[in-house]
Predict the 3D structure of the following.
Amino acid sequence: MALALLVPDRVVAGLAELPELPGLTRSLEHRHALSLATLLLALLFLAAASGLLRRHEWARWTFIVLLLASAAANFAGLTLIGPFFDGIVAFYPAQLLDTPDGRQFVAQMHFNRQATLVTSLAGALALAGLHGWIAWKLCTAAVRAEFARPVTGTR
């Protein structure tokens, strides 16, 4: 996102006017808001992690919610794979895609789409399992007891 902020507004406006440009690349128009949202989310994670170290109950619940939300976001991101590859194929003229090389390109993009979907799904499942396990551990009696007692001293 930091690199996206370096793209001048006139370049973004020119890219947005290209009808053959995949819709996902038009997110550059919202690069400032996306960068701010990313920064705020990172600060929320930092605050929750700091609060966890200090054994604050609010931080435990915040971290659990963030873990579960990020696991869900990984699955939501899977829905972007199809439009991404469709946008790549749509970028090329139909007469080019109707040639033997074009058909081979479309077949390769179809394979890439499926491979990306399978590997991304595997990653999302692995992260969901890990995040679920951590969230479950944060809800166990032993961990809850750590957050229930008053914290002594300064950390």
Notes: The radius of gyration is 22 Å. The chain has eight helices and no strands.
